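Proteins fold. Shown next:

***
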Amino acid sequence: MDAQRPARAGVLLRQWRQRRRLSQLDLALLADTSARHLSCLETGRARPSRTMVLRLSAALDVPLRERNTMLLAADYAPEYRESSLDDDTMTSIRAALDTMLAAHEPFPAVVVDRCWNVLAGNRAMAILMNGIPPNLLEPQPNVFRLALHPDGLAGRLANLCQVRALFLERLLRQVNATGDADLHSLHEEVRRYPVPVGEITEGGANVGHPPSPIQVPLRIRTPHGELSMFSTMATFGAPADVTLSELAIELFYPLDDFTRNVLRSFAEPAGGP
């Protein structure tokens, strides 16, 4: 066994503990071990058992992908499988996603991975995606690029400044919580996007609109009028697969009757009632 591997596991353990802002004593209490033993693990003077790696990872709320990384660093096999959505074992998951997307119509909904790449969307997403240039759709659309790129939705957002601030804050929070290098690169990219000339950069999100329970709704200018929406996120409970643990479904809802009626009319077939 490579003598550096347990030491590397200790480095990762310390990084995750510091990311969660826990002392060694705090983590030791959460994981039912001693602070002295934890110190030995972090410095590489002791090798963690497989059970201990998993126990500490759970106490630190480490994502499943990174739990596998910690196991490999300690010279153990990964615990969690990483499946493709096309695998036979994911048939029920695909069916659940399809059901959720279809059931949410006529309101938009998308399935995203850990980096906010769009894996699937329902037909109602067309009203948001209309006019998006091909370079933002290939090889995969990304929620943050679609929303903040000047050629994407940014030029159509009536409250771009507020949406941009909210999105960047959300992404930075996720970067800090996960330490994910891909998310960090995405944040560095989108925060450098220029704000389209002429856009309002100050003021409240709801200026000129009725009081709203949502601090920063999504206000999009369309040929049908200005649509106001908010979203919720849904995830799978108790995942045992890396891919499944990183999936999220973003569901958009109308914030007012005008938006609700436009979305419903948009979904009606031509010549329908």
Residues 160-178 form the longest helix (19 residues). Residues 201-205 have pLDDT under 50 and may be disordered. Strands lie at 109-112, 118-121, 218-222, 225-234, 248-254. The two ends are 71 Å apart (CA to CA).
